[in-house]
Amino acid sequence: MKMSIVVRKDLAMGKGKIAAQVAHAAVDCAMRKSSKVDQWVSEGQKKVVVWAKDENELISLVTKAKSMGVRVCEIRDAGRTQLDPDTLTCAAFGPDEEEIIDKITGGLKLL
Amino acid sequence: MKMSIVVRKDLAMGKGKIAAQVAHAAVDCAMRKSSKVDQWVSEGQKKVVVWAKDENELISLVTKAKSMGVRVCEIRDAGRTQLDPDTLTCAAFGPDEEEIIDKITGGLKLL
Questions:
Q1: pLDDT tens-digit profile, chain A (111 residues)
Q2: Domain count across chain A
Q3: What residue of B is the nearest CA neighbor of A75?
Q4: Which residue from A1, A3, A26, B52 lies 20 to 30 Å from A41 (Cα-Cα)?
């Protein structure tokens, strides 16, 4: 099982901001009880963090995941620091079977 | 309620590596059921990500948190990329009352 977190590359976020947003997305997806989450945790909660080039690319991945029935957790920033309010910053996908996650985010580059 | 995640500044980790380690720590601390976690989630899961200068500083914070009864989740890297196996990379503290977390990590700089 794997979780993939996709971060927008077109935003000017520092590494602490990125880490906090990614953690937010990962916690959101991990907190919803399911046997997939349980299995993912028992296997050591594998995660990859990858780039989307902009909001449009991230939204199209979200749409694809939803059409496949894969859990998605989108994060919008409150905008108190660095970003405008309600900016989509990242989204977590899964946890789900590695092959399924790779069909959505497998082509993206690691941060 | 707040969670603080403390990352070692003396390791050569890229921003994707940092984000994945921080997410790992945050998920670990969030997955243990407690009324503090429930309250933290309902309040929007406030997080800060800060630097410790090295392993010794991070270990002393972990020891302090444990002596105060604050939940701590230490992350050690499997060492498949970038780091030696079993390297302590970061730790999450809480979630707990903001004043309590600040007694442990309040003096540290944001990433």
A1: 999 999 999 998 999 999 999 999 999 999 988 999 999 999 999 999 999 999 999 999 999 999 999 999 999 987 777 788 899 999 999 999 999 999 999 999 999
A2: 1
A3: B44
A4: B52
ipTM: 0.94
Rounded to the nearest 5°, which phi and psi values hold at B93?
Answer: -125, 125
C-alpha closest to that of B110 among A17, A35, A75, A3? A17
In a domain, B38, yes or no: yes
Chain A residues with beta carbon closer than 8 angstroms to that of B50: 16
Nearest chain A CA: its distance from B45 CA (Å): 7
Q: At what angle do helices A55-67 and A98-105 cross, to 10 degrees?
A: 140
CB pairs under 8 A between A and B: 81
> Which structural domain range is residue A26 located in?
2-105
Supply the CATH number for residue B90's domain: 3.40.1490.10
